[in-house]
Design brief:
- The structure is a single chain.
- By secondary structure, this protein is of the alpha/beta class.
- It is built from eight helices and nine strands.
- The strands form two sheets. It has a seven-stranded parallel sheet with strand order 3-2-1-4-5-6-9, with helices on both faces. It has a two-stranded antiparallel sheet with strand order 7-8.
- Helix 1 links the parallel strand 1 and strand 2.
- Helix 1 crosses helix 8, helix 3 packs parallel to helix 4 and helix 4 runs parallel beside helix 6.
- The protein is globular and about 60 Å long.
- The termini are far apart.
- Bound molecules: nicotinamide-adenine-dinucleotide.
- The site of nicotinamide-adenine-dinucleotide has 30 residues, from helix 1, strand 2 and strand 5.
């Protein structure tokens, strides 16, 4: 364990597996105290256990980011448990694909709610807490930098057939990021975005197509292995990324070295610059 983030309080949504879990482990390994959210209680607890086993500090916060009152609860867990809020990663999400003429309103709103409205609500709930902390710090003559990292996708940047709901929500994340970078600059908050390309997680598993129960719905996850192989051939680095590599990109926006970087979107896609 090194110590770049000692004393920091980090909140991460969807941290029970995949990229979110790797971000949680990475930030904890640098000394951050982590609030681990996931829909799935068992997975949130498993991430917390992993962090604690390696000497880190973490607490679970189980629930759907789309739930009424979730945002306030999430922020409250951080302030009650650890007395602050320094890093917030809006990561939770999944895909629910269809071409537009076969897409239901339910499918459309599920993606907008999870990928865009939930981050908006969490950030809105965090604002008064951050403002109060900043006021105190400024009165004491201190400048403490805070970090927001919103997770987007190459689908949001370039569009992707079959994902009009997800791509639209992930494109909205860019607007959310750029606007809050302007609103929150005076509070010393860096607001940035990481847009991932193909990262090997449950969403894109090599094991082929299966189903996952997400908020009571059977959602298709995984990619057909042949399609996956074709996709990987279009990536300049020749392969999808690991969750650890994805976490590395988010981590760059959480450390002091990026204190003067705000309103940016970083592509973490193995060199892919379009689809
Ligand atoms: N894997 C990729 O190739 C890829 C590419 C681009 C963007 N992304 C984005 O990265 C983020 C993480 O995806 P991943 O690949 O790690 O997926 P994953 O399925 O491996 O993990 C996502 C986690 O989020 C949780 N989650 C889903 N909906 C939730 C909700 N409503 N409330 C709380 N938790 C919820 C799930 O339970 C799961 O543990 C997502 O926002 C996704 O859109 C992933």
């Amino acid at each position: 364990m090194t110590s770049k983030l000692v004393g920091k309080v980090a909140l991460i949504t969807g941290a029970g597996q995949g990229i979110g879990r790797s971000i949680a482990l990475k930030l904890a390994s640098e000394g951050a105290r982590v609030v681990v959210n996931d829909l799935d209680a068992g997975m949130a607890d498993a991430t917390v256990d992993l962090i604690r086993k390696t000497g880190g500090i973490a607490v679970p916060c189980v629930g759907s980011v789309t739930g009424i009152g979730f945002a306030e609860h999430f922020v409250n867990v951080a302030t009650t448990e650890y007395g602050g809020l320094d890093i917030l990663i809006n990561n939770a999400g999944y895909t629910w694909d269809a071409v537009i003429h076969k897409m239901s309103d339910e499918q459309w709103y599920a993606m907008i709610d999870c990928h865009l409205t939930a981050p908006f609500r969490i950030l809105r709930a965090a604002q008064p807490v951050i403002r109060a902390l900043v006021k105190r710090e400024m009165e004491a003559g201190q400048r403490v930098m805070r970090k927001i990292v919103n997770i987007s996708s190459i689908s949001g940047l370039f569009g992707n057939a079959g994902q009009v709901n997800y791509a639209t929500a992930k494109a909205g994340v860019l607007g959310l990021t750029q606007t809050l970078a302007k609103e929150w600059g005076r509070m010393n908050v860096n607001v940035n975005c990481v847009a991932f390309g193909l990262i090997h997680t449950r969403l894109t598993t090599r094991a082929g197509i299966s189903h996952a129960n997400i908020e009571g719905r059977e959602i298709k996850v995984g990619i057909d292995p042949e399609l996956l192989a074709t996709l990987e051939r279009t990536i300049p680095l020749g392969r999808g990324g690991t969750p650890e590599e994805a976490a590395g990109a988010a981590y760059l926006f959480c450390i002091p070295e990026s204190d003067y970087v705000s309103g940016q979107t970083l592509l973490c896609s193995g060199g892919l610059t379009g689809i």
